[in-house]
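Suppose you are handed only these lines of text.
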Amino acid sequence: MSERIAALIAEVEEDKTLEEVRRALDDGADPLSLVEALREGMSVVGEKYEAKEYFLPDLILSAEIFKEAIALIEPRLKSDSISARGTVVIGTAQGDIHDIGKNIVATMLRCNGYEVHDLGVDVPPGAFVEKAAQTGAGMVAISGLLTLAFDAMRDTVDALAEAGLRDRLKIIIGGGPVNEKVLDYCGADAYGKDPSEAVRLAEKHLG
Ligand code: B12
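From them, the structure of the protein bound to cobalamin can be written out as follows.
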């Protein structure tokens, strides 16, 4: 069942993917395994895009399907999950509106039991500070795909430090071009290449 769901979203088959997810839920499938199947399918879409087999509309439609499928699965996850393991504030850095990857990371964190406050895209440093202070978050996750996002990421790290929150929370960054050098430049605590790394970092820092 999971394999079929992964294959259907990888083929960007909207109706069939959603139908299969509904059927799997009715049959009592483990909601987390369905999320994992969707994520696997999404990574195939990414590979096909890189191979120029798919184009931008495929990428955008597959992200839409992912969102719709998660909306079907989420009510099931909430009743299944125990109390939150920790709180994460996530958003795309100021000046950057890419959110497909950020949304996947947010979903995977939620599915793994974290309370996630998603600030959306083009998020100014002050908004990260405000939400982190208000929620008592233990982690701030910043996504960025544009080179210009690196400055905004660094400004966000600085703003969290100026607000006196730096010692109390971990800051992780990620997104296509993020690497060790970008991490050094921004002064965040860690970076991740995919949603599983985001979950691993949350487990390490928040438990
Ligand atoms: C889709 C896309 C768009 C869509 C975005 C739709 C949306 N809702 O997000 C649209 C068409 C709107 C768009 C616009 C632009 N784009 Co664009 N876009 C892309 C594209 C093709 C794919 C990005 C994507 O979604 N990948 C799939 C996701 C799943 O991968 P991901 O984001 O990397 O996320 C994964 C990991 O990185 C990780 N991750 C992500 N975030 C985080 C966070 C944490 C904490 C962790 C741990 C992990 C993590 O997990 C995710 C899941 O696996 C890339 C090219 C590419 N191959 O990356 C260009 C690209 C990013 N875009 C680019 C550009 C230049 C632009 C524009 C400026 C174009 C323009 N001239 O208008 C505008 C940006 C406007 C703005 N202010 O942001 C450039 C950036 C170049 C640069 N070095 O700065 C790229 C690289 C294309 C290129 N080769 O030139 N874009």
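What can we learn from it? The chain has two domains: 2-80, 87-206. The chain has a mean pLDDT of 92.
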